[in-house]
């Protein structure tokens, strides 16, 4: 294949690492073993170069300048939207570029939700949702007096009980809002199976794709979703960036929740008419540099191969699932037992070592993992856990990173078993 692969066509993480300058740095004087890509992915050099190039040679305010540089900025921004749309398998005309997935999920709840929900209507989410796909629905259902209902999780493993969906669909939810991949459980939602079930009762399917798009092949149109939100910084793009795909007929009927420059057709002193399509939801100066970076991130992930990325990550997760119980025998692993049913991450707890202590001890070896509730407090409460430790992998994760993880886990065990 390319410079990033073995002769057998598998991703070669040692080669991939070379594209990520930060991985050669030594924070605190220790080699970096970055196992927190689910929080934010590291940025490859081609992304950093694309942003520099835009800022050095193409920077102007898009959609405004009548001069050459202004048109170049507009072209760069729109070309980046088109590249991102191709990556996601959707038409560019249906892809709203926003500052984050949080903004995208709020747009669905506050625009579609407020426009379509009323007293007694039902919104269905899972008990495992990230706060960004929960709180906006809490707010809107409270405001319009609709009901928020939940697809439950297993009290021990946290796995989402999809077999309960059938029963809950009898409530005829107007929308079901779920994560494609859980940022705590690592489990992959069976979208292709549940989308027709949801549609058959007249409901819509809104998907939070934050943890999916960088870790596995995702063709949004093929998922059956009606809305799909994603985040640039989880994909190797900048912190600012992300967006919402929505079916054209839904977008057309939605009101903007932010108003101002760039999203209008005509403005008079006392009223205004709004632009058509995606532009109606992109008020103010668009994040051109963030969008250019996002397109470069899509290009790079495609170059690595999204199936190859997923296969590599599954190999890394298989090792985590196999060796974690040896390194820390009391570890309670959340989510699916089989790495093939996961994307990108494994979370666990231990009665012996608190997640925060674990993260601190691992940091002494340069191993960066996440400890806490991962913006999913209700799930942790359901599992009677105050915090979990989360290991997340990426195309640049190597066996050496995992060796350092397991050595650190053994250190922690020795300290707390004393
Ligand atoms: C599943 C999930 N949803 C939503 C978000 C929020 O994304 P953003 O940081 O782009 O607002 C995250 C990020 O942590 C996430 O993991």
Alpha-carbon Rg, integer = 22 Å
Biggest pleated sheet = 7 strands, mixed
How many helical elements?
14
Into which percent range does the helicity of residues fall?
Answer: 25-40%
Strands, total number: 15
CATH domain class name of the largest domain: Alpha Beta
Q: Kindly report the spatial arrangement of strands forming the biggest sheet.
A: 2-8-7-6-5-3-4
The CATH H-level superfamily of the largest domain is Type I PLP-dependent aspartate aminotransferase-like (Major domain)
CATH topology heading of the largest domain: Aspartate Aminotransferase, domain 2
Mean pLDDT: 96
Q: Helix and strand string, N-terminal first?
A: HEHHEHEHEHEHEHEEHEEHHEEHEEHEH
Distance between the termini: 51 Å
Number of self-contained structural domains = 2
Description:
With 418 residues, the protein is α/β, with parallel strands linked by helices. It folds into 2 domains: 146 residues, Aspartate Aminotransferase, domain 1; 253 residues, Type I PLP-dependent aspartate aminotransferase-like (Major domain) (Aspartate Aminotransferase, domain 2, 3-Layer(aba) Sandwich). It has a 7-stranded mixed beta sheet with strand order 2-8-7-6-5-3-4, with helices on both faces. Strands 11-12-15-14 form a 4-stranded antiparallel beta sheet, covered by helices on one side. Strands 1-13 form a two-stranded parallel sheet. Helix 2 packs antiparallel against helix 10, helix 3 packs across helix 10 and helix 11 packs parallel to helix 14. The longest helix has 22 residues. The radius of gyration is 22 Å and the shape is globular. The structure holds pyridoxal-5'-phosphate. The site of pyridoxal-5'-phosphate has 14 residues, from helix 4.
């Amino acid at each position: 294949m390319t410079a990033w692969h073995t002769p057998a066509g598998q991703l070669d993480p040692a080669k991939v690492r070379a594209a990520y300058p930060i991985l050669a740095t030594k924070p605190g004087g220790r080699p970096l073993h970055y196992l927190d890509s689910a929080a934010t992915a590291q940025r490859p050099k081609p992304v950093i170069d694309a942003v520099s190039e835009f800022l050095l040679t193409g920077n102007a305010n898009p959609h405004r300048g009548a001069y050459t540089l202004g048109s170049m900025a507009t072209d760069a921004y729109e070309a980046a939207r088109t590249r991102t749309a191709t990556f996601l398998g959707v038409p560019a005309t249906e892809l709203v570029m926003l500052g984050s997935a949080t903004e995208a999920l709020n747009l669905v709840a506050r625009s579609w939700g407020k426009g379509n929900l009323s007293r007694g209507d039902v919104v269905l989410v899972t008990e495992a949702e990230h706060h960004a796909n929960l709180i906006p629905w809490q707010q809107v259902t409270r405001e319009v007096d609709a009901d928020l209902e939940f697809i439950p999780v297993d009290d021990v493993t946290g796995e989402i009980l999809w077999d309960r969906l059938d029963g809950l669909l009898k409530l005829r939810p107007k929308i079901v809002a779920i994560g494609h991949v859980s940022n705590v459980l690592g489990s992959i939602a069976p979208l292709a199976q549940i989308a027709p079930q949801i549609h058959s009762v007249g409901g819509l399917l809104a998907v939070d794709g934050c943890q999916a798009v960088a870790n596995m092949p995702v063709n949004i149109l093929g998922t059956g979703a009606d809305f799909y939100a994603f985040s640039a910084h989880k994909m190797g793009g900048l912190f600012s960036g992300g967006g919402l795909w929505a079916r054209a007929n839904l977008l057309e009927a939605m009101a903007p929740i932010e108003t101002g420059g760039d999203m209008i057709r005509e403005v008079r002193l006392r009223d205004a008419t709004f632009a058509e399509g995606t532009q109606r939801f992109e008020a103010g100066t668009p994040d051109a540099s963030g969008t250019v970076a996002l397109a470069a991130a899509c290009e790079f992930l495609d170059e690595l191969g999204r199936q190859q990325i997923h296969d590599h990550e599954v190999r890394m997760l298989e090792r985590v699932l196999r060796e974690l119980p040896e390194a820390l025998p009391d570890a309670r692993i959340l989510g699916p037992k089989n790495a093939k049913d996961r994307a990108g991450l494994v979370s666990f707890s231990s009665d012996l070592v608190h997640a925060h202590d674990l993260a601190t001890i691992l940091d002494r070896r340069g191993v960066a993992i996440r400890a806490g509730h991962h913006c999913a407090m209700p799930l942790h409460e359901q599992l009677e856990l105050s915090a979990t430790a989360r290991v997340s992998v990426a195309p640049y994760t190597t066996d050496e990173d995992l060796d350092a993880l397991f050595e650190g886990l053994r250190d922690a065990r020795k300290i707390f078993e004393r």
